[in-house]
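Need residues for this backbone.
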């Protein structure tokens, strides 16, 4: 038997097999090299979408505080009258105040006129023999009935004003809990999930540099919506304070262990300043209040910027947000199924 060619034939078959295997792997290798470049696009696309979504979210929830040009409620040097009013109760009270001033002026002028007349008419030179009149029924009736009528006329709008100042807030009112501390204010929005934040007086130099009123500006204004009922609740952690904003005709004591409540509705956007109005310690004069009133949409943006939620709006958005990923996943599943079916369809052809 001749075994001389057997090893050579075996080696030849092995070389042929390895060569065929290498040739068969070349397209797969090339495809594998091409896959990362093609697959990179779907990976980068979600990242770009996420960045765009984040930018959109920032734009949606971003909030820019009002500037000095929007200041509407603050003390003015040399002013003699009340501050302009920006609440319904304040406007009513301001009109009543003006009416009272004119009534007082008229009474004062009338009484002064009577005094001058009596001093001149019944002076010693013009009336050497003094009158011995002891009483006059008509005059006594007049000076009794007329003041009563005046007081009743004042009492009716006064009681009406008192009633307006203590109307019960509606159930859907925005609730703000205000806590007085020595010597700053804490604000909390429980319905929106905004925890308490502290407002301190802004340093005088910083306020002047920003064109804002020194000793009145704070480092963290409380932002409230306009034309919306607001439930103000006040309390204190140490001593009695009083949360007062003159331009909104609002003043309510903050008492430790007690929760006071009152309705406030602001009519116009703007910045309104106030101060603690109850002597509360050595830094009582350095407890300013700054209210920033904005339209409801801007207030909602501020709530989001504080990490809060808007109740019904968030609940309505949740199902839509959950449905979006499911809708996006459906085409991806179809594409994956089709891609998996392609090799299966090609397998019989290879076998043939």
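Answer:
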């Amino acid at each position: 038997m001749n075994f001389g060619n057997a090893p050579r034939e075996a080696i030849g078959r092995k070389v042929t097999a390895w060569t065929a295997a290498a040739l068969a792997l070349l397209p797969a290798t090339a495809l594998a090299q091409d896959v990362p470049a093609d697959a990179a696009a779907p990976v980068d696309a979600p990242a770009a979408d996420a960045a765009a979504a984040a930018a959109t979210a920032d734009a949606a929830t971003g909030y820019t505080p009002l500037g000095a040009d929007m200041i509407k409620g603050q003390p003015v040097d040399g002013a003699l009258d009340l501050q302009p009013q920006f609440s319904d109760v304040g406007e009513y009270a301001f009109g009543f105040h003006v009416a009272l001033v004119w009534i007082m002026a008229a009474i004062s002028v009338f009484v002064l006129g009577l005094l001058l007349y009596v001093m001149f008419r019944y002076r010693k030179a013009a009336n050497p023999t003094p009158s011995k009149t002891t009483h006059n029924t008509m005059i006594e009736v007049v000076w009794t009935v007329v003041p009563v009528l005046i007081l009743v006329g004042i009492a009716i709008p006064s009681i009406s004003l008192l009633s307006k100042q203590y109307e019960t807030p509606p159930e859907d009112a925005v609730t703000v809990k205000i806590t007085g501390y020595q010597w700053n204010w804490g604000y909390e929005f429980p319905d929106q999930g905004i925890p308490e934040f502290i407002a301190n007086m802004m340093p005088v130099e910083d306020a002047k540099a920003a064109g804002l009123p020194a000793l009145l500006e704070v480092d963290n204004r409380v932002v409230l919506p306009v034309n919306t009922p607001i439930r103000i609740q006040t309390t204190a952690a140490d001593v009695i304070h009083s949360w007062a904003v003159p331009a909104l005709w609002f003043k309510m004591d903050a008492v430790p262990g007690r929760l006071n409540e009152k309705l406030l509705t602001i009519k116009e956007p703007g910045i309104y300043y106030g101060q603690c109005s109850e002597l509360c310690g050595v830094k009582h004069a350095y407890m300013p209040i700054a209210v920033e009133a904005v339209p409801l949409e801007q207030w909602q943006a501020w709530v989001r910027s504080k990490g809060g939620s808007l109740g019904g709006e968030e609940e309505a958005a949740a199902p839509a947000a959950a449905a979006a990923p499911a809708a996006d996943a459906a085409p991806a599943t179809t594409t994956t199924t089709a891609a998996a079916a392609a090799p299966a369809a090609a397998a019989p052809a290879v076998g043939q």
